[in-house]
Amino acid sequence: MSSELRSLKLLLTGNPPLGRASEGDRAPVPAHRMMDNEVFSNFLLYSTVLVIKMYLLAVITGQVRLRKKAFANPEDALKHGGLQYCRTDPDVERCRRAHWNDLENILPFLFLGSIYSFLDPDPFIAWLHFFIFFVGRIIHTIAYLVKLRAPIRSVAYTIAQFPCVSMALQILWEVIDTW
Amino acid sequence: MSSELRSLKLLLTGNPPLGRASEGDRAPVPAHRMMDNEVFSNFLLYSTVLVIKMYLLAVITGQVRLRKKAFANPEDALKHGGLQYCRTDPDVERCRRAHWNDLENILPFLFLGSIYSFLDPDPFIAWLHFFIFFVGRIIHTIAYLVKLRAPIRSVAYTIAQFPCVSMALQILWEVIDTW
Amino acid sequence: MSSELRSLKLLLTGNPPLGRASEGDRAPVPAHRMMDNEVFSNFLLYSTVLVIKMYLLAVITGQVRLRKKAFANPEDALKHGGLQYCRTDPDVERCRRAHWNDLENILPFLFLGSIYSFLDPDPFIAWLHFFIFFVGRIIHTIAYLVKLRAPIRSVAYTIAQFPCVSMALQILWEVIDTW
Q: Across the interface, do A33 and B20 touch by the CB < 8 Å criterion?
């Protein structure tokens, strides 16, 4: 059994595979365990900021709806001047596409990153995964909202996908390695 | 190191930071640990019911499509009377917007709530976070489906966001507190 | 307290409820713990492949956009021949609906499956849950993309929902069982 796998098992079971029998081989690696935590803390930092970014995007969408007077629901339009404002608007649709793309990418990252953090990755390599994804997604949102010329948005999207695919493959590798 | 942080570390590593050395200071707090579990159980109750609510929304959308004869795909329309029924319908779109809004809000809640549950929050305060979100989202869905007058839906949405932002900030605070 | 619940508590707290007092009754079940891990490994296999499938769907959507010359953003259309290509296309919309449906179903599965894996389910029953969902979602995507006749897609969707609802109810059952 690889040490990475044992580390995952330990996390999942909350105790070593053979009761306390393996305590002896665990005692010398407390710093190593702390490193694991450092990776997850790091992940939590970037992922939580990205969730807040998604919330901000929802606020921005609402503001654009009010400013452009373009509401999705008749009841909202009625409250803001009349049914004629129940309509679509290119800027509102743009915000919604940015948000949609976040759902497609940031939500799976929350899952993959959580699992990957406990595969005992090298802390720097792990940080690089999270950081590249984070920067890629921030640039993606900015490129969408301020209409940066193509292909800036697509490139940011693609770059942010690399760490995701890398984490997914490493998770699969760990799973297959168990058999 | 704060006790909240130690609690998170303990969860993440599955063993105390210094092997069994810190067992002494952990032994007296079993009830405290159980409280942690109580918070997560509580979170699981509300989050799972909200996931079931999302599934119900999908069923409702399907029923409205059948009743209004408004299908998104030609192959579905063909099966239910002809290609002329491959069309949009305001009530179907309303269901889809309600569902979209759930994806934007309930899915990040599943992540934030899971992490927050292990930051050793006060059980009552934690329950309040989950309960406010839960009630806000239930009212949001009802307001959407039965077309309650504005701004009931928006107010429910906004109120449900408060515990989410609060949990996100507390997670960030814990992470930053580690450095 | 049921053994399933104790197993969940153990996971959540990282130590048994009464300090090391209950170590005695845990020592004889290491193989049982490994089974728990096996369930989660199994879950990780299917869920990660489904996440990769979602990523592939995004790539396919992009390819269809390029081939059909149908872009969502003016800046993309400009780069590929002119603003007239900022338009919708039935095949692109089809890809997006398939992706939307994945978000609605695969993302909640990531949550429910993670929790369910630690409720100490029978490994075969658990595998059956994951496998049915996996096959259902793969058929759903294929049926969407190659336009299989109705109701193949709807049947695949419905079959994939069964294990999800089953897992949700089992989670609720465990939570309610605690009180």
A: no
